[in-house]
Amino acid sequence: MPLAVAIAERELLPPGMPVKRLTRDWIVDGVAFLLAILVGVLTYADAFPDGPGQETLAVIDLVVGALTCIALWWRRRWPVQIAIVLGVLSSAIAFSAGAAAVALFTVAVHRPARVVLPVIALNVVSASVYTAVHPDDDMALIWQLLLVAVIVAAIVGWGTAVRGRRHLILSLRDRARRAENEQQLQVSQARDHERARIAREMHDVLAHRISLLSMHAGALEFRPDAPPEEVARAAGVIRSSAHQALEDLREVIGVLRGSDEAGASEATSTTRPQPTLDDVPALLEESRAAGMRIREQLAIEQPDALPTSVGRNAYRVVQEGLTNARKHAPGAVVDVVVSGAPAVGVTIEIRNPTPVGVLDGASRPAVAGEIPGSGTGIIGLGERTALAGGRLDHGPTADGGFRLRAWLPWPR
């Protein structure tokens, strides 16, 4: 820890609490003691020019003054108390003038203004009393008092400047610490956001793959007498879908397990390119191969100008809609309508004759072979479209079916 910060942090300690002296403290205390002795000797020589051997008062002044200089050793622990005692003694003890000045400086450094002001007043009064008792024949009393006020103001101003600098150091240290914590928080939030985005992306993919697996496995279960060619074809689709699902699962686990930013970035960089709206025909054919009956209507103007993010979100909406249709309306005809143009936006609508209350939060009894759903697919689509600036509507239709409709913005 830098020395300036360590010194400044002691300002936060409770008054009277002992602190460990640093090497700098020993040096400063030694200089302060020598300075107090020097000023005390000069003041003492001016008050008692004949020395301590001439009168008892001079001896008392010398002894008490020496003790006040020694008392400076505890000025860091009890600055106010020592400053008050030395301030009172300085009104009569000439040798204590230097020690009183050092004690006043210590109070200005370590205590706030509301504590310093009474100590200043006490020192001004004490110095005025001393000046009146020991006047200078070469200077008028008013100028002596003015000089005392200037000296006291200079000592307090110096101490206040030191205190202000220490608090500035603490403020800058705290500001830097808060900035570092905020940066770490932003990095953590960005990492969590990226992981949530990837998890949401993988949910759409895995739900699609697993629903295909379930459909083909169900076909094999209910048609054990199917021709070997159909069994082999279904088994091949199951194997391929399982392989793709495992690959997708491996990727998302690799990303979510990343404990640092570098690991997360490395895992993200290995993710395969995400599909866009151009891959919707392949998605429809894959679903048809799984036994779904789909009627599509794709009408995108200027498809080359479609932003990649919009195309990717549109693809996920179609994928989730088909997955839900396989889960909740097996064997039904699914209508997929995708249209869009620049400045108009992209509209995706998927309709199927699903019984009312399947996707809108209600429950119904499960049937044999039905694919279980987590109920978070529509929620994830809502979050996806909202983040893209679009909107999502879903619910039962008047004829007892179900409609999923999303709109995504397409800037011109």
TrEMBL record:
Top-level taxon: Bacteria
Enzyme class: transferase
GO cellular component, one term: membrane
MF GO annotations: ATP binding; phosphorelay sensor kinase activity; protein dimerization activity
Nucleotide-binding as UniProt keyword: yes
Transmembrane segments: 26-45, 57-74, 80-108, 115-133, 139-161
Residue ranges of every copy of the Signal transduction histidine kinase subgroup 3 dimerisation and phosphoacceptor domain listed in the record: 194-259
Species in which this protein is naturally found: Patulibacter medicamentivorans
Protein name: histidine kinase
Keyword Transport tagged: no
Domain DUF7134, residue spans: 24-166
Catalysed transformations (reactions): ATP + protein L-histidine = ADP + protein N-phospho-L-histidine
Keywords (A to Z) from UniProt: ATP-binding, Kinase, Membrane, Nucleotide-binding, Phosphoprotein, Transferase, Transmembrane, Transmembrane helix, Two-component regulatory system
EC number: 2.7.13.3
Record-linked Pfam families: DUF7134, HisKA_3
SUPFAM superfamilies: ATPase domain of HSP90 chaperone/DNA topoisomerase II/histidine kinase
